[in-house]
Write a structure and sequence with these properties.
- By secondary structure, this protein is mainly α.
- Helices cover 72% and strands 0% of the residues.
- Helix 1 runs antiparallel to helix 2, helix 3 runs antiparallel to helix 4 and helix 4 packs parallel to helix 6.
- The longest helix is centred in the middle third of the chain and has 33 residues.
- The two termini are 22 Å apart.
Length: 179
């Protein structure tokens, strides 16, 4: 098992550490926010992100384990809480905190894109550019990632769910391509 505490802490380092920083940032926003309902939503989002950091979901600092698809479920739920917090903060006139939430939501989506895209790359590498044996899953993984990035940008929860589908197809392609 990897020592996740030792993951590279620098910006653009490990995806795991980026999630640690993301959770901390969301908690910091909750500490500064003024709307009680938004604070509760932010705390729930941070908790979901924290849950996605469980050792069992990670093979290493940048790769999810076989159980890693749960990370996307937890982060889809976190995204839902962040969207609600954003709306409540705007309605309460706390634009500064709302824009901080919007930025963190973008970070969450980007990290999940990277997790899915890395699995697509692994599928392509393992299958030799989507060979006939693993091709359907490999191509589907790539298509799901493109769909999430292009058609679902206005809907973070569905975008993250799409990344999960891409990750699952990529994982299946890797399993078929490696003996």
């Amino acid at each position: 098992a990897p020592a996740l505490a030792d993951c590279d802490p620098v910006a653009f380092g490990s995806l795991y550490k980026q999630k640690v920083f993301l959770s901390s940032s969301v908690s910091d926003i909750a500490d500064l926010a003024t709307d009680g309902d938004a604070i509760e939503k932010l705390q729930k989002a941070a908790k979901k992100i924290d849950e996605s950091l469980a050792q069992k979901y990670w093979d290493d600092c940048n790769t999810l384990s076989a159980e890693g698809k749960a990370v996307f479920d937890k982060e889809r739920d976190a995204a839902d809480e962040l969207v609600d917090a954003y709306q409540k903060l705007l309605a309460a006139g706390d634009e500064s905190s709302a824009y901080d939430v919007e930025y963190q939501l973008t970070q969450l989506r980007n990290i999940d894109f990277d997790l899915a895209d890395d699995m697509v790359d692994a599928a392509i590498a393992a299958s030799g550019a989507c060979d006939p044996e693993s091709g359907a899953d490999c191509k589907k993984a790539d298509e799901e990632t493109v769909k999430a990035r292009t058609k679902l940008l206005g809907d973070p929860e569905r975008e993250i769910e799409q990344y999960k589908k891409a990750w699952e197809h990529g994982r299946e392609a890797v399993k078929k391509a490696t003996p």
